[in-house]
Design a protein that fits this description.
Layout: E1 16-18, E2 26-29, H1 34-45, E3 50-53, H2 56-61, H3 64-74, E4 78-82, H4 91-103, E5 108-113, H5 115-132, E6 138-143, E7 154-158, E8 164-168, E9 176-179, H6 181-184, H7 189-208, H8 217-239, H9 244-257, H10 271-283, H11 287-305, H12 308-320, H13 329-346, H14 363-371, H15 379-388
Parallel strand pairs: 2-9, 3-4, 3-5, 5-6, 6-9
Antiparallel strand pairs: 1-2, 7-8
Helix pairs in contact: 4-5, 7-8, 7-9, 7-11, 8-9, 8-12, 10-11, 10-14, 11-13, 11-15, 12-13, 14-15
Keywords: Oxidoreductase
GO molecular function, one term: alcohol dehydrogenase (NAD+) activity
Pfam family, one: ADH_Fe_C
Length: 391
């Protein structure tokens, strides 16, 4: 892969690092950063042999995986590459990946790609620890989408019945994350355009963190900043897909949308995510697209159902989007909903449940699973919300 002129990206807005706490050792960002960050993280972890975990498209249609393999080979740290990780991380791929992880004697996973490889790596490490009873081994995540799965302690995967299942432990947070926008340049333009939908997943994270319980105010203000950048740079990336600085800004905005935060257990951020979890694996809808479908309408519903405090946080997003207030909290939230839908439409990402062949008769069950109980007073409104997604 050709190397870019790194001096163009020396601004601290585009290049640097950040360390948090155990088990995350560091987040490294910047065009070309994989070349220095991956060896540094291997040293920090004392890792000797890596299994590269990715999907077939990235493996077969780009040289991103080969770039990572070559860095590992230079360090004599390459074990093998497993690329049978499909969308929504089916359990069969996880089982096969765990077998290869053990067969090559790997002590670290380097995941490359979107949310599915990152979550599959967490699941493999979880099941490996359950088998051995020893310490959790580690993951270094190199995301090429904006889904932000690398910032959480939980992993979603598709079980044998076709439903979403989860594993969770604070030890599953990746030990290192590398945000290298240069790696995304080799992605075919058609695929990068599709991956703009994962930017709506990041918008979904940022918005739902505004009303997620136990999220402290500083994190919510970071989410406001994420929204400002996502609304600015997603259209810019569509207009000029080869602008690496814009791609780097989007990767950083994705990080801000789901800032590393210790929680007691892994769960959906809010209703839009809960609906996405129920729609995604069962009906083969990418998570970015589920956010395009559900988020604007969930925000509109919050104008009716949210607490006063949550309404204030949601309405506050307009200031960061440089949109004037209507003078009413409820109308400001409806305006935010409209801005989200406009972003989806402008990016050419509008879709319907009919396009994904979701049976209408399944709607009541999807709604009930998402809200968690038949007794939830909002259930009829959630059913109506899903019905509206057929148009």
């Amino acid at each position: 892969m050709s190397s870019l002129d790194s001096t163009k990206y020396d601004s601290s807005d585009l290049r640097g690092s950040y360390s948090w706490t155990e088990p995350l050792k560091g987040i490294y960002y910047g065009p070309g950063s994989v070349k220095t960050a991956l060896p540094k993280l291997l040293d920090i972890l004392g890792a000797k042999k890596a299994l590269v975990l990715t999907g077939r498209t990235l493996h077969d249609k780009t040289d991103v995986v080969k770039t990572v393999e070559n860095i590992l080979k230079e360090r004599n740290a390459y074990g093998a590459t497993f690329y049978e990780i499909g969308q929504h991380a089916p359990i069969a791929g996880i089982r096969n990946g765990l077998k290869q992880f053990k067969d090559v004697g790997a002590d670290v996973i380097v995941s490359v790609g979107g949310g599915s490889p990152v979550d599959a790596a967490k699941a493999i490490l979880y099941f490996q620890q359950q088998e051995t009873g020893g310490p959790f081994l580690k993951q270094i995540a190199i995301p090429t989408t904006l889904s932000a799965a690398e910032y959480t302690a939980g992993a979603g995967y598709t079980n044998d019945e076709g439903f979403k299942a989860v594993v969770t432990s604070p030890e599953l947070v990746p030990a290192g994350i590398i945000l290298d926008a240069e790696l995304t340049l080799t992605t075919p333009e058609r695929l990068w355009y599709q991956r703009l939908s994962t930017g709506l997943r990041a918008v979904d994270h940022a918005v739902e963190n505004l009303y997620r319980p136990l999220v402290p105010p500083p994190i919510k203000h970071i989410c406001y900043a994420a929204l400002a950048d996502l609304f600015k740079y997603l259209p810019a990336s569509k207009a000029n897909p080869q602008d690496v600085a814009v791609r780097q800004k989007l990767q950083i905005a994705s990080w801000m949308s789901l800032w590393p935060l210790k929680t007691e257990k892994y769960s959906a951020l809010g209703l839009s995510h809960a609906l996405g979890h129920k729609l995604g694996a069962r009906y083969s809808i990418p998570h970015g697209i589920t956010s395009c479908l559900t988020l604007a309408r969930v925000v509109a519903l919050k104008a009716e159902t949210a607490s006063q405090e949550d309404k204030e946080w949601l309405a506050g997003a307009l200031f960061y989007l440089r949109k004037p207030s209507t003078g009413s909290l409820e109308n400001d939230i409806l305006k935010l909903s409209a801005e989200i839908q406009r972003l989806v439409d402008d990016l050419g990402l509008h879709s319907t449940l009919a396009e994904y062949k979701v049976p209408r008769e399944d709607v009541p069950q999807i709604a009930e699973l998402a809200v968690g109980t038949k007794d939830d007073p909002t259930l009829p409104k959630v059913v109506a919300l899903l019905e509206s997604l057929y148009a």
